[in-house]
Specification:
Length: 279
Amino acid sequence: MTTASRVLPFPFPQPPFLPGWVWLVGAGPGDPGLLTLHAAHALSRADVVVHDALVNTDVLCLARPDAEVIHAGKRGGKPSASQPDISNRLIALARANKRVLRLKGGDPFIFGRGGEEARALVAAGVPFRVVPGITAGIGGLAYAGIPATTRETNAAIAFVTGHAASGTVPDNVDWSALAQSASVLVIYMAVKHLETIVGRLMAGGRSPEEPLAFICSATTTRQRVVTSTLGRAVADRDAQGVEAPAIVVVGEVVRLRETLGAWWDPAELLPALSESAAE
Ligand code: SAH
């Protein structure tokens, strides 16, 4: 048996969260346990938390009781704040000398417009830090019992978005080339334009028999996984009432869910949650 040669103080040394700074922080896909230590530390220090609709607000219990909480996403049918509005708000809060925590679902730099926000901060001369998070396309696959890679199935994996800023399927993706190059595809925001996406992948040579899974509300108590095939995906989406947020994963790895999918059962969390609520 070996032992740790050095015992680190816990919590680990953390960078100071200084007033006037913006931290762009990933909150992970849903399960609060998937927050990083840096994210938990930032929550405990922030004066103001600006979060998206996809962030599990349970994590806000780690925030200071007097922290201001701003919801910057869509809710109750109201339109979401525009990207320039959000960036300007972050800049104004930082200039008011607040410790600003911009909390985003998953990882801030994966299809989350964190890059745009960081550029706006640089342009405004506002200091910032980035705390990566577990993206839904990694955490969701793990909680669905679908390994993102195995030596037998795939030596490549592609992260793709099915929805461009224009509201359509992105036209800067060469879907045939993608179909030929990465054997596992992890597609974000794919539910709405699924028909076009699976059509392009099959036109690019992917078999209609290829396994596909929808992982909905991944890593939350509402997680639901629907398995299908490329050819049946649209019919199954409609018949099973698949709803966003969902990750679509295409490839042989999906079959491994038959053996590995039982490891995480969201229902197990419910008694634990009601116990903690009763405490
Ligand atoms: N930055 C985020 C992605 C934002 S784009 C990340 O790294 O995860 C929003 C899309 O992410 C959703 O439409 C959906 O495709 C996916 N997504 C985010 N959270 C999810 C979740 N808990 N379950 C399934 N899909 C999720």
